[in-house]
User: What shape does this take?
Amino acid sequence: MIPYLDYKTLLPRTAAGFLAALLVIFPVFTTNVITLSIFISSGIWAIAVMGFTLVLRTGQFSLGQAAFMALGGYTSAILTANLGMPFWPSFLLAGIVSGIIALIIGLVVLRVGGIYFSIITLALCEMVRLLAQQMEGITHGVRGLIPPPPPPIVLGSFEINFSTSIVPYYYFMILLVAVTSLVFWQIGRSRLGGTFSSMAANQILAEHQGIHLMKYRVIAFTVAGVFTGFAGAYYAHFLSIITPLMLGLWESIQIMMMSIVGGISSIVGGALVGSLVLYTLGIYLSRLPIYNIQYLLFGAVVVIVLLFLPKGTGLIDLWGKFWRKVFREPDEYEIPEEVEAAVE
Assistant: This one.
């Protein structure tokens, strides 16, 4: 007997799986450096956006996520370029150091919460940038550090060389994004994720129900710090340079914009869509001979999303809306035809 197939669930998942498989085999169709670089950078930013969205789900608005990217990038760059440590241990330490700093800062500043937390994280972002600029002997100041590429990976007679091709960077990005997505997806669907959502919905009610707000805020902030540190370390080695100007206030605002445009309803999907759309848009806008046009149009995209999509939704939510239209299911924001007729 053939089991019942729910096509309304199967088709969207199949389409999403097909898109994911297409991304995995994408270098088979092209090895263009610019195209692959856009995907690699978008994936790196998506990891930072996932961290921002996780913190946002606890009801806290962080304006310093780029600081943890900088901490991870500088940690790995200093260990490899200055101390000669191999890439893989330095990469792991970058995430650990970034997470420990996030834990320490979280224990101090998350007690205040609200707008004060946003201001403090904003100040943190500028502090990290200024320290990197002033510590000339360690960070080389505005000149920046030049970390080496990851070492070749030898699998029998097959060698994966990061120095001769961009394709290994692409697949390392796919692996890193996949692991990060799995972790954040599991958090989102677990009891911990439900606790985060209840805190964001009503912190006073959550506290009266016995939820220790400080504890869960610190957990989210630390997890976000670890993976954002990994993203920063990979970003530094991919670009082969890290300077104080690369990861500052604008980059933190950009992470926030990517989260809003992609949609905070999905930690993983919203981050991936938002980072890919805005980063690609930014690359092409930067070619226009108009000063600061990128900042202006980024803001315009955010305003358009906020105006024309329901509160709390983003581009990722259009995926579900599309499939509801395909199966002719009434949208929750639309008035049924019967109601419209009765009103008339």
